[in-house]
Amino acid sequence: MAKPTVVVVGADKGGVGKTTVARTLLDYFTAHHVPTRAFDTESPKGTLKRFHPDISEIVDATSVPDQMRIFDTLSTTDANVTVIDVRAGLLSPTLRSLRDIGFLDAVKKGQLNFLVFHILGSSIASLNEIEETSTFTTDGKYFLVKNFINNTSFFEWDQATHASYFRKFKDAVEVTIPKLNEMAFEQVELASVPFLTFVANKGPKGESANYSFVLRGYVRHWLGNVWAEYDRIKLNETVSSGGLAQSGPRVQVVSRS
Amino acid sequence: MAQPAPLYIVASPRPRIGKTLVARLLMEFLQQSRRPVAGYDINPREPSLAERFPKLVWPVDISDTRGQMELYDRLLADDTSSKVIDLGYGPFDQFFAVMREIDFVPEARRRGIEPIVLFVADPSGSTIRAYAELQSRVPATFVPVYNESVSLLFAKEDFPPTRLECGVIRIARLSPLVRGVIDRPNFSFNAYMAKQPGGPTEVHQWIGNVYAEFRDFELRLLIGRLGSSIRGAPVRRKGRPAR
């Protein structure tokens, strides 16, 4: 049995696509047969729950009872991985809470895996936020995610400035989410299904759907590239550590219609 | 054994090389052999195939996603007609890039459609390189078309077909004197072939020869397919032969 893994996906600013990244992570773990559950902190609405209703719960990350629902169940749940999609602006407060409840100490002792995916905005202000966030993640794995999914002009500012910021955080690893065809993205939104389900031409209840092959092809290609990034950072190996490491060929996005 | 419905893609990275002529001949050849046929004209600036066959050929602009859906989704939805695409040199790169990105060829084969690229060859180095590169990246069947009106030189080793049995399709040179006849806006090869009041002319012979080339090609393809199914493995050429 692998030790429990908590994946926090967050940003200090809205509209940077953190829920999209959380969705790709859930698809990745599904494809690798890693039992996963998710918490959507966009209470009361919950975008993540709309796409992954079977494994997602909406919680208020600032309330103690909901914190207990998440963290007190880590060792008893069947899920190896817990993904928490943290609402915009709550990343630093959430990490602070994790420190206060002793979660970060458990990570330090090697009882838990802890991964933070910090989705960056396109302004220099978002890089200032890294400084604060990174102080909480010294014992976990800290990924700085440049999300190009719906933004073609990203980090247009000076590369030297960019590099100087990233040099400060030697333990942080950059992850790039490539752009997805707008119409394909929109169709997945309308379908309200996981990316993987869209590729497989299925509806929310597993019924056959009639999505465009072109759009499915674009999503399959894009998801393959995103997963290649996750393979590069050895995500599957990380969440499997402490137990049976999963081996075998890399999982590919396969269309079944 | 049901034969796959062919999807002919008449292509070249260069303009004025005879692509639309080959597509016209193929459309009429398929009509003459009484098979259902549908055409697609991917020449947004000059859709001349669509103008000649307004009821059979659909003009498509694949520069945006909507146009790509119109084309590729439609191609996959129809697994009974023989299909002919006249691919202009402008959208040449994009057509194959999208085809690769969405994994079109395996899906087409799964649905009983066989994509066949009829690559109109010319001796320029860039065309030879484009052929080799495309053949290595796109898993379709590639067949070179040697249009004698374009060049008197054709080195077979520069354009190896994907399957050995496919060979080369040769379009003979038509004398410039009668070339104007087939270029007339309302000219139909089949209508012309049906009328031979004073015996066959040079144009009759030329059309007959081209149709014979197409028939031979289809036969070679069929024999190759039967041979592959008997042997249990497709006949594919590995790499390019040494020159």
The backbone outline of chain B, from C-alpha atoms, is globular
Oligomer: heterodimer
How much of the polypeptide of chain B forms β-strand, as a percent range? Answer: 15-25%
Element pattern of chain A in H and E: EHEHEHEHHEHEHEHHHH
Biggest sheet strand order of chain B reads 3-2-4-1-5-6-7
Q: Radius of gyration of chain A in whole Å, from Cα?
A: 18 Å
Strand order of the largest sheet of chain A: 3-2-4-1-5-6-7
Low-confidence stretches of chain A: 243-249
Helix content of chain A: 40-55%
Sheet with the most strands of chain B?
Answer: 7 strands, parallel
Mean pLDDT across every amino acid position of chain B: 91
User: What is CATH's topology name of chain A?
Assistant: Rossmann fold
Which CATH-level-2 architecture of chain A? Answer: 3-Layer(aba) Sandwich
Write a brief structural summary:
The complex is a heterodimer of chains A (257) and B (243). Chain A has 257 residues and is α/β, with parallel strands linked by helices.
What report would you give on this structure?
- The complex is a heterodimer of chains A (257) and B (243).
- Chain A contains eleven helices and seven strands.
- A seven-stranded parallel β-sheet of chain A has the order 3-2-4-1-5-6-7, sandwiched between helices.
- In chain A, α8 packs across α10.
- Chain B has 243 residues and is of the alpha/beta class.
- Chain B has one domain: 3-Layer(aba) Sandwich (Rossmann fold), CATH 3.40.50.
- Helix content of chain B is 44%, strand content 16%.
- In chain B, β5, α6 and β6 form a beta-alpha-beta unit.
- The longest helix of chain B is centred in the last third of the chain and has 30 residues.
- Classes of the chains: A alpha/beta (257), B alpha/beta (243).
- The interface between A and B is medium-sized, with 14 and 13 residues.
